[in-house]
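hey so i finally got around to running the thing on that chain from the lab meeting. sorry it took forever, my laptop kept dying and i had to restart like 3 times. anyway pasting the input first so we r on the same page abt which one it is
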Amino acid sequence: MSMLDILMIIFRVSFGAFVPLCFIAVLVWMERRGAAFFQDRAGPNRANIFGFRAAGLVQNLADAAKLIFKEDVVPGHIKHKIYFIFAPVIVFFTAVVSFAVIPFADTMVLGGKHYIMQAIPTDLGILWFLALVSFAVYGIILAGWSSTNKYGMLGGLRSAAQVISYEIPMGLALVSLLVVYGTVNLSEMAQFQGQLLFGFIPMWGIFLQPLGIIIFVVAAFAEANRTPFDLAEGESELVAGFHVEYSAMKFAIFFMGEYVAMFASSAIIVTLYFGSYQIPWLATETLIAYAKPLAVILMILLPVLMYYFAGWIRRSNVSHYYRLNDPRKREAKAYIRVLWGLVVILELLLVVILLSSSGGVAASIFAAQLQICTFLLKTTLMCFVYVWVRWTLPRFRYDQLQRLGWQTLLPLSLLNIFITSAVVVALS
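ok and heres what got predicted. didnt touch it at all, straight out
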């Protein structure tokens, strides 16, 4: 095994492990700022380190410190303590590992070798994701049962019923998608979506399966236990549901597991229906062939975008009342200097692309970097949709939740399979 092989393995595994963990802080921040925006109020904007608030991200560090040093209580009435402690680990671990099979860039060719851009390159693809998502509910059931608490037990039972109700339409929506793609391999699905329909429409899943994406996204919301499908932890009925007896870091692990699951769910939706890492009308071969012109365009766009972004920071990062030597203005200046420094570094990297040979290793790495950024941008936007829905729709009643799954989504998913199969057979 060459040094390049080892470096690529380290990069893939690191991306699959650390990106979901880093997004926990981003998503907690997005949740709070999004809630503040939708409710027309200020979000977290006071916690700071030497005056630097990082637009509210420092609040995450304060919360982490609080949870780490908070007393970790295991109630005395709990009989099966090992299961009580192990339950949040199952939820968190399955959420992290479910992301491992999602491709974040096209297969990279370096030195004549092909490197699949997945943390765990496997042909199981979507089957791996479904298996791990299904396994996560065991952690919730185990938490509710081992808590020896009626509210926790009810929350676990609700979660089990909810998973059964929504995994069936989710699986049937995937059947329609598999009929179109003809594979369960996520990398092959992503490559399929790099083609064009009628010569100008990207062959993304959303255009090929307009009904399927609605079914799948609704079921994904239910699988992630996000509002309006958070009946397993409904405060108005179950206090906190399955995690009512948890505190400190065990509660934090449940909390982090929810956001990792939200990120992984957004990533799989993007992979199946929104072209994954594909840039519209710019397939991998096109990106490599036109790496230099694209680098020139980016060299022009980056300073322009940074100029307007810096102006927005200056306007937004000021106190609402007069303060001598306003500390927020000093904070804004520091951020702007750092961001301009990053722009300079990126410009130098783009110069390297211009000086390298056309279609070489540098062009391949450049194309992969653009695809990774595209994938993360799409996934972040999908995560914002999760936040948007949470702070827009009220929680369903339990009978409404079950009725939606069994009487609406299930018949629609069966109808979608029939229509998709008929169209595929007719066109073939």
